[in-house]
Amino acid sequence: MPNNALSAIGRALIVVWMGAMPVVGQIQVTIDAGADLKPVSPYLYGRNNSFSSTDPNWTLPDADLVRLRDAGVTFFRESGGNNSSKYNWRRKLGSHPDWYNNVYVNNWDHAAQTLQKHFPAAQGMWAFQLLGYAARSNAANFPDWDYNRSQWWEGVNQNLAGGGVPNATGTKALTEGNPHLYLEKWPADSSVAMLDHWFGANGIGLKKEGIRYWNMDNEPEIWSGTHDDVMPVLLSPQEFMQRYIQLAKKARAKFPDIKLVGPVTANEWQWYNWGTRPVTENGKTYPWLEYFIKTIAAGQQQSGIRLLDVLDIHFYPSTQKTEEVVQLHRVFFDRNYDFPEANGVKTMNGGYDNSLTREYIFARCNDWLTQYLGADHGVTLGLTEAGIHDAVQPSVRAVWYASTLGEFMKNNVEIFTPWTWQTGMWETLHLFSRYNLTHSVRGISANEALVSAYPTVNASKDSMTVVLINRSPDASQVVNVRFNQFSPEPGKAVLYKLSQLPAEETFVSHRDNALKKSEVNVGVNGFGISLPPMSVSSVTLRNGGPVLGEPPAAEPFQVFPNPSWDSVTVRWAHQDFDQITITATSGKQIYNRTLQKSQREAVIGRKLPAGVYLIRLTGPGGQSAVRKIIAR
To answer: Residue 596: which H helix or E strand, with range?
Structure first.
């Protein structure tokens, strides 16, 4: 036999052997394609403020449009944070509490139209106003240009709109401005009337299926700070909940398929505290988010109306330490992680207990949701603002963002829209949205603090993507990956890496970015790989063994949520359908609707009786596709 043939056989045997035998010193990673199978929410790939602008003549630059598309952004939160609380959709004006309360043009109509023009398959999210006041006029703006050429200084939060007198050495004005000169009262009916303006018969023609998610204002626990021009003393949590429930009912009546997202909590302290302390009612003390959930449950039971769809919080840690930043993803679900910045959690029992340092805030919320709303509550989780310190290096930032996305994928988080967007994040988003698949499965590392694996598979389980993260700042990590219920095809698999990112932005498009492409040798049971320091790597694999999932044809379109508790969304691509029907297992047709040729999504707003149903899409040539759905 020729020597080169022997060499080829030898190399193949080495590949197989390396895939079967772990090497001493490696970190062991075990992936089970049959365990913890969960759909990955497409709305984890979100961001804030892509289309919003106070310049009425602003248009999105072509380069930004390409970046948004190629990075794979699927969810756009465009309300503007604090600026949303006093937004007046009739006048297209907003009052800016972080800039003297000055009133500026803010055209949500234009932003929403631009979004739906360029990203018809994406979701947009705006906000209702619960504060009670909205911008009326910019005639009483503080003349910031005349004062200091509109430069930032510590006094930009002073209430100077409305004739205020600035205090050059402090954060409070010498004379407060008069809010009645630039604001008007804004009841719940005015807030929800925006739904008619956007989606109604005489509205501007926006597609409501693409703007289903609505924030219930923004960070109400700190209104006495951000909006102290109209609320110098914070309203009680009970009064806030009355406002919330009143508006939620009105919004649901106008738009049954709406997704109500609240309470939009400001930061770690506010997860547990309303203002300066937890909530006390009837002699018992509750962390703020527990009280919120408890009151929502009581309101739903009393009214029979769903009042919450996504429980939403914000998170702004202050640490600059690399070793702490790369562990921030553990704040949400890890019941054993001691958070160095733990603060609000120490007030959980009514005092201030320094021994309480473990947050696991989303896990806590899931516990409270089950406790007060029952196991089938159907409420998901969202993080609609987050940001880390500007001084954090891009590769560290990429690891933080990737780790958070990974934890959210495997724990059924629905929405993730970071507020601060810094170098390293475009690259990470592109890597995840482009190469990850539709369902998360179990990935366990022998050293989760140092190395994590976030595997995803497609519906048929004939493909898998494994994201591997090395959190060490200066050491490569040799990792041995093994599989259960998935047999990778032996040979070379494509490997993408992000590491050593420079300070300048590198992501321009799918073709112009910092991804490093190479290959990794894969054996019949797995593969070994060396991960660079502070890196995010992605390996794409084909299943070389029996395919354990349904064939791709079994999922010709998406149906979610499934199981369903109220409305159902049906989404498809690459094919025209002209009719959708729902049939009970008895054969009785209970729903029928005609579809437009260009339509790619249908929302079925009616609640189905508990049972199993078949959803059928039928095309003009008689071709059809069927999916099963469970209603509870």
So the answer is: none
